[in-house]
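Lab manual, section 2.4: Encoding a predicted structure.

Procedure: take the sequence of the chain (319 residues), apply the prediction step described in section 2.3, and record the output as structure tokens. A sample record is shown.
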Amino acid sequence: MAGTFGATSTTDEVLEGVDLRGKRILVTGVSAGLGVETARTLVAHGAQVVGAARSLDKAMAATADVAAQASDGGGLDLVDLDLASLASVRACADGLLAAGQPFDLIIANAGVMACPQGKTADGFETQFGTNHLGHFVLVNRIASLMNAGARLVNLSSSGHRFSDVDLDDPNFEHTPYTEFGAYGRSKTANILFAVEFDRRHKTRGVRATAVHPGGIHTELGRHMTPEAMAQLIKSATENAPAGAPAFSWKTVPQGAATSVWSGLVAPADLVGGRHCEDCHVAELVESADVRAGVRAYALDPDRAKALWAKSEEMVGERF
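Recorded output:
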């Protein structure tokens, strides 16, 4: 079953025949795009979904049709979460811990992409602080709620190939800032976080993986200029592997498919501590000029441990 899907598979195709009644799943970023589609397909297959979003009004409007598609047992509850504020992250985690209801899957879907240089409420570079540190604190704070057999799926990107993490200068205090350089750092961090989380929790049956959803037109690219978007597409086209088809956008259901595949369908030992794309485990690649695959530095276990320690130092909390 795990090997029968590919780049054009949709969420409903991946979950065809899968009964998720009794499963409880957390999805961040349910106010647009992949988050809404992920919540929709999970609820449609019977899961109880907790959707987290920075704007509850926007999330309520975006998910208005999700409940209508719920099958027996399925449902959606919304919680407030601003990943760019650790106070908000901790309040969200505290609320979930107080409720005490366990999770079978966490999909860390929310994020920002290629935005102008800025800082989070806590003074972190915006993309690293939002995409990595916010999820790092949230997931670790509620890790005790994850059932044996549960999984964490971190939304990363092929954009991780733009840059490794910089543990000496994570906030670009001494390094020239570039939108895609910062994005690459944060997406590499998403993968490394999954690698170390998987190592720490697999003995109790909890696994973690990271995924590249593919190129999709969503709000994620709202900060990009038309010129930057054109350059990104040009790069993806020129850097295609020999014999690969030309770059094309995925639909949102195709983009969300790898998240649900790796979280609910693929064998845990296949995806645990790995990076996935197009509903399969990504191959190691040596060059940043290849649009598919995963760079070795993003799966380096020592690098993952070092990032974990640096992240704890930055947020002032040990896990």
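Check your result against the sample. The domain at 11-315 is CATH 3.40.50.720 (Rossmann fold).
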